[in-house]
Design a protein that fits this description.
binds S-adenosylmethionine, seven-stranded mixed sheet, alpha/beta, 7 strands, Rossmann fold, single chain
Length: about 270
């Protein structure tokens, strides 16, 4: 297995590792956007449907077109979320659908850093908006506030110099407030603002922290999957020592994301299909 790739194939493993937290942060994001009811939404990189579900549960949408290039993730999302307003589509940021008059909102959760040219993705997203529509996105704060991954990579790098190169905190300079604001402003969005969103990520004991890293989906589990049994056991032991004196005790951590939003200028023309 190539441990440097970001693999998005196993929906159940993703849910176990990250989806349960991405569902919590998605709800915070919708609360921050505070959208009016009856919007038409386009979602980029919907994955297993965390943000899609938050839109349906909290934003009273008229319609949601939720796209992801992973066939497996879209199949998982279709199975787990059945809502009359939602249509799932296998499509990457470079092949987003259009809608006559434009969407009211184009959003993306925990995706932008995985796209090789985020500026092109933002341009495509902006071009799908109606004049005055909202573009908004969020990414984990891998460098600091995403604690369970921050601790994982810090400990992994103490044991293995390769780990530092795989650490999302190093790989994704976009995952900072100022970088996100600049990205949207450079692509012509107006009234751009950003803020931190934070959730609790409680683990009932050390095993419930460690087991999701064995699922193989996502950068850190892919890295764990590339290790020998001895190296994996050493990493597990060091993590346990770092996190808790008592392997049976709960571990309380938090996860922070940076969220950004901007408005498409009202003088824009939107091209229909
Ligand atoms: C960390 S997951 C986030 C999934 C979901 N939005 C969530 O909040 O749980 C990253 C997602 O980005 C998708 N992705 C990767 N490259 C992409 C691209 N070029 N365009 C759109 N989505 C992409 C992956 O397939 C994966 O579903």
């Amino acid at each position: 297995m190539d441990e440097t790739s970001d693999r998005w194939i196993a929906g159940d493993a993703y849910e176990h590792f990250m989806g349960r937290w991405s569902r919590r942060i998605a709800k915070e994001f919708i609360g921050w956007l505070n959208p009016p009811a009856s919007w038409d939404w386009l979602e980029v990189g919907c994955g297993t449907g965390a943000l899609t579900q938050a839109i349906c549960a909290n934003a009273h949408p008229s319609a949601v077109v939720a796209c992801d290039p992973s066939l497996e993730f879209v199949a998982f999302a279709r199975r787990s979320l059945s809502h009359p307003a939602v249509a799932f589509l296998v499509a990457g940021a470079d092949e987003l659908p259009r809608q006559e008059g434009g969407f009211d909102a184009v959003v993306s959760g925990l995706v932008l850093n995985f796209i090789p040219t985020p500026s092109e993705a933002i341009r495509s997203m902006r071009n799908r908006l109606r004049p005055g529509g909202a573009l908004a996105a969020y990414v984990w704060d891998y460098a600091e506030g995403m604690q369970f991954l921050r601790i994982f990579w810090d400990v992994a790098a103490e044991l293995d110099s390769r780990a530092a190169e795989l650490d999302e905190g190093q790989r994704f300079p976009l995952c900072h407030r100022d970088a996100l604001v600049e990205l949207l402003e450079c692509e012509g969005l107006e009234s751009v603002d950003a803020r931190a969103l934070e959730i609790d990520t409680p683990f009932s004991d050390f095993d419930s922290y460690w087991a999701p890293f064995l699922g193989g989906t996502g950068p850190a589990p892919s890295y764990v999957g590339s290790l020998s049994t001895t190296a994996r056991e050493e990493l597990k032991l060091r993590l346990r020592q770092r996190l808790t004196q008592d392997a049976g005790a709960p571990i309380h951590l938090t996860a922070r994301a940076w969220a950004v939003r901007g408005i498409a200028g009202v003088d824009r023309q939107v091209r229909a299909v």
